[in-house]
Amino acid sequence: MSISNMLASFFRLHVVIRLLIIIMGVLFIFGSLAHLIEPEVFPTIFDGLWWAIVTTSTVGYGDLVPQSPLGKVLAVFLILAGAGFVTFYMAQLSKHVIEAQNAARDGQMTFNGKNHIIIVGWNTRTKNIIQHIQTKAKNISIVLIDGTVKNNPIHSNKVHFIKGDSTQDKTLRQANITFASTLLITADQNKNELQADMHSVLTLIAAKGIHPNIYAITEILTTDQINNAWRAGADEVMESNMFLSHVMTNSLLERGMADIVMLLLDQLHGDKFSFQTIDDKWIGKTFHVAAAHFLGEHKVLIGIKRSKECYVNPSISFVIEKDDSFILIEH
């Protein structure tokens, strides 16, 4: 490798690494000179290097001290040059640590983890979701993407913040979406319903374009955009407005129903509510037979999921088919 290539490679290194290499080189040169000038005081190059490190760090043990005038002149130059380099290095190191902390806080730092969850959009729902995840799965890393907040709204070492537009490849790659396990896209509360849904669908398209196999859950507000979300590759579509409409309607017709629904949802969060893919032995059997079986295992069978349809509390003669899933409540 030519000298010009070596210099080019050196200058491509991070400034802190370059400074460290320079300092070690300067210390080695002064240590070697001390050994050559006063071999009786510094019997080995290591002794000279030890003296140079102790001197530049301003520790000054005094176990090795140059005796000759030339050795003392060398010490003066070491103090002026070496100590200056070390001080400058520590200042640069502190600067880069602070810059890294600020970048992480302001959402400018790239996430390098794997098997993480990406959540798009900051709102009250997102806050509650993150709190529930951290309660149930403390080791899961979460990347929050939002372009409206100034810095990370969650103070946790398991929540990494990316500030930016979730429809842009740059932002998604900054969240390391290629190695993410799950993507949750929440509706943007700063837009009207149609604009929020269009933004969610665009985010979904961008995400699936980079990582086609990521499991994507998308919140959709308007009925007209549901099919677009499915076409864009959503694995689950959540119609939050439809859900709230059902709850409000039931409350109007049956007073107190909203409280019951919220209590049920609070009880069913986490691992109490689950899907179970059926074994072949259940094909052709009735819902009644399956429900009786699971009661013996202290589980309540409340319905059957078939493709994109759910049958809650079907008739006891409802026949189980291939590729169905059980909807269970576990104790």
From TrEMBL:
Pfam families: Ion_trans_2, TrkA_N. One of its GO terms (biological process) is potassium ion transport. Signal peptide: none annotated. It is a multi-pass membrane protein. It comes from the Bacteria. Residues 114-239 form the RCK N-terminal domain. InterPro entries: K_chnl_dom, NAD(P)-bd_dom_sf, RCK_N, Trk_Ktr_HKT_K-transport. One of its GO terms (cellular component) is plasma membrane. Its main location: membrane. The chain crosses the membrane at residues 15-37, 73-91. Keywords: Membrane, Transmembrane, Transmembrane helix. It is found in: Cell membrane. PANTHER family: POTASSIUM CHANNEL PROTEIN 2-RELATED-RELATED (PTHR43833), POTASSIUM CHANNEL PROTEIN YUGO-RELATED (PTHR43833:SF9). This is RCK N-terminal domain-containing protein.
